[in-house]
Amino acid sequence: MTQGKVKRIGILTAGGDCPGLNAAIRGVGKTAIVAYGMEVIGFSSGYTGLIHKQYVELKEKDLSGILTLGGTIIGTSREKPFKIITAEDNEKPDLIKETYHELGLDCLVCIGGNGTMKTAHLLSEIGLNVIGIPKTIDNDVWGTDTTFGFDSAVFIATEAIDRLHSTANSHGRVMIIEVMGHNAGWIALYAGMAGGGDIILIPEIKHSMNKVCNAIEWRYKHNKPYSIVVVAEGVDHPKSMSAARFFSESIQERVDVEARQTVLGYVQRGGSPTPMDRILATRYGAYAAQCIAEGNFGTMVALRNNDLTTVSLEEVGGKLRLVDPDNPLVMKGRKMGVSFGDE
User: Fold this and answer.
1) Is residue 114 domain-shared with residue 243, that is, in the same domain?
2) pTM for the model
3) Is residue 295 one of the residues assigned to a domain?
4) Is residue 277 annotated as part of the catalytic site, yes or no?
5) Residue 315 and residue 4: Cα distance in Å, rounded?
6) In this structure, are 258 and 283 located in the same domain?
7) Do 230 and 170 fall into the same domain?
8) What is the span of the domain harbouring residue 120?
């Protein structure tokens, strides 16, 4: 890059949507424009926009008023350009590289989860300057203490659990609520603890249906008229049905109680981000712009002990940040009588 040339950067959001994406776009864009005088390009629908040259120039005014909005103003997709299924797929990395150089980009900011970071690393391997920003409601991106979107999902799930207490108590029922989390049980753990769940089932802790039922029977025998069971969608169960339905039917077969199921689903990913997610996304975005100015490429911005730092994309790709069975919150829950289905 020649001395004095205005830097031009691209931004994309990939993978599933989550609260805080627009806050992150704003954080990157406004800092890049105001603090560093950069030009900003927004690519449509994740990596698809790079492949098909679908983009829009983002001015500072375009980034005003989006902090509180859910979703993403530039759209997203689950396009994986390095996943080869057909002969045409072989061309995608080259098309992305062509778009990058044709637009004269100095860096590409990829906002997404594990899959997005893996692709970002592969793009850096073919010569592109890339910086990643971690987002996902599942909180399972390796290398950072937390991702934006997680706090909002926990807030929504906790509110739902709060409301189920009333019905469960009124009817003396077992209420099973299924929250998101294929491989990681962070939402179930945090929302379960925040919402006063009696039984919390996560993929990282192997459960026994007998132990789950024993915990419910113990509660009824000790004059606890109802139970709240919080289940991560990725816990071991038949894939022909939801986890909530499986546990509801299994519990009713083994225990003389009424059990009802609730699958929270995509409402956990929608709507306005919480204040904490707005702040975190803004911090990540602003720091990513700083990293671009400093030439710190091939990295993902991360939060470690509340300090902003970077971690190599090579380290992040293909790894998951899972709940340790000895996590302090799990241990505190056990001491308070919360069952995790294993004892």
Assistant:
1) no
2) 0.94
3) yes
4) no
5) 33
6) no
7) yes
8) 8-149+273-316
